Amino acid sequence: MTDKPLIDALVASLKSAPAVTVLAGQRIYATAPRLPTYPCVVVTRSEGRPVSEGDAIEHLLTLTCASRFGGPEEARALVAAVRAALHDARPSLSGRRLVNLRVPYADCFAGADRETTLGIVRVRAVTETL
Fold first, then answer.
1. For the chain, what is the mean pLDDT?
2. Which residue(s) pair with 97 in the sheet?
3. Closest to 17 measured CA to CA, from 8, 26, 7
4. Do 68 and 38 meet the contact criterion of CB atoms below 8 Å apart?
5. Mind listing the domains of the chain with CATH numbers?
6. What is the spatial distance between Cα 82 and Cα 67, in angstroms, rounded to a whole number?
7. Strand order in 40-50's β-sheet?
8. Partner of 78 at 20 to 30 A CA spacing, among 4, 26, 71, 103?
9. Band of the pLDDT at 1, cuts 50, 70, 90?
10. How many beta carbons lie within 10 A of that of residue 32, not counting itself?
11. Dihedral of CA 26/41/88/127: which sign?
């Protein structure tokens, strides 16, 4: 059970969403770069577990939006754009069928360094084999 097909599809969806790319450009990553350029979006956590006796898998992903704009405005705008682009989206997955995709939670807060504003977007998806 892997989240990679879903993560790849979400990254591709965000890279093709104009509201996201106007803020982050193509700085949308499945794994964190060593030296990120801001603003950016990174898949920072993924979890998958069986939903029922069938082959359905519930995926819980956390996407982190990071900004060093000097205030929360850019991070809030990026979180809103990511949320709008993904909630109820229907990206095609390799080897799996997407049953549903939701964004149940989003938040923005100051980073520990006091220079970075972070936004968290939690994504819940259910997939099953083709």
1. 95
2. 128
3. 26
4. yes
5. 4-129 (3.30.2000.30)
6. 14
7. 28-29, 40-50, 57-67, 117-129, 96-110
8. 4
9. low
10. 13
11. positive
Q: What distance in Å separates the CA atoms of residue 80 and residue 86, rounded to the nearest whole number?
A: 10
The structure tokens 């968290």 sit at: 120
Q: Please report the pLDDT score of residue 44 as a whole number.
A: 96
39 prior amide bond cis, ω within 30: yes
How is residue 91 annotated by DSSP? -
Q: What predicted TM-score, i.e. pTM, was given to this entire model?
A: 0.94
CA distance 99 to 43: 21
**In this predicted structure, what is the pLDDT of residue 130?**
85
- How far is 95 from 1, CA to CA, in rounded Å? 11
CA distance 61 to 44: 8
pLDDT digits (tens, 9 = 90+) for 24-60: 999 999 999 999 999 999 999 999 999 887 789 999 9
Handedness of CA 30, 32, 35, 41 (dihedral sign): positive
Residues contacting 116, CB < 8 A, separation 6+: 38, 66, 67, 68, 110
Q: Please state, in angstroms and rounded to a whole number, the distance separating the CA atoms of residues 110 and 117.
A: 5
